[in-house]
Automatic annotation (TrEMBL):
This is DMT family transporter. Coiled coil: none annotated. The chain crosses the membrane at residues 33-54, 66-88, 94-116, 123-141, 153-172, 184-203, 215-236, 248-267, 273-289. It comes from Halonotius roseus. The keyword Transmembrane applies. The lineage of its organism: Archaea, Methanobacteriati, Methanobacteriota, Stenosarchaea group, Halobacteria. Keywords: Membrane, Transmembrane, Transmembrane helix.
Amino acid sequence: MSSTRDGGLFLLLSFLWGTSFMAIKLGLEFMPPVLFAAVRYDVTAVLLLGYVAATTGEWRPRSRADWLTVLVGATLIIALYNALLFIGQQGVTSGVAAILIAMNPILATGFSRVLLPQERLGGIETVGLLLGFLGVGLVAFPESAGPLAADFIAPAFVLLAAACVALGSVLVQRVDSDIGTEGMVAWSTALGALLLHAMSAGLPSESVGDVAVTPAAILTVVYLAVFASAVGYVVYFDLLDRLGAIEINLVSYAVPVFAALSGWVVLDESLDVAAIAGFLVILTGFLLLKQATIRERIG
């Protein structure tokens, strides 16, 4: 019964996070990208802070280390990640964006090895890292889906977003703080929303006057803030406690399936053969990078 429940939650999380790429793409028709991300996390922050206040004990930042953890999360995992992702998605399809973000676990492993020199990559792990970047090349270079997609610009923004969240995840783990994961995410979301608003205000290309308040625009914000973010994080917290980090990382490789399908159904997007091949190469790279840990779990 427990495995069935976990499997159902895994699929639900994959669906929520996968369809979020389609919702972002849809919402970009009505709002400037960084302002769009800021409004999304305004709503999410209120919901998550209310949730953690009601359900967890160690949710308030109390020490300098706690606030450092929140600052890292807000800057890299929320603000920079979402700003770069939303800007990049102007020029790539939902499926391609999700595949590029699936580099996150591979990049996180690479950052971890750089920041901790004692954790060297072995031969197999090095091949896995290189395969990840080869997969990115297969996905990114054939893509041309909008005005920002000249050459490698739009995919590069999305890949930089993946790098930000990967680096942020590694740095958060290195800070010796007492705040729980739920509290860190909730406060990072609140501070990250403020940073996104500041970034949007500083961009000459963005203005509140460019927002088109339509039923579709409201629906995308509500879906992203309430379901993809707030509900998605609650499911993520539950699965993280029950399954562990390695199994949760596999969500990154189920998400592109739902992103591509929802993009095809709602936005009439397509995914070419090179992108599918690139996704499989990235997945293979992840499995090689984590092969020792996976063998331990299976054994």
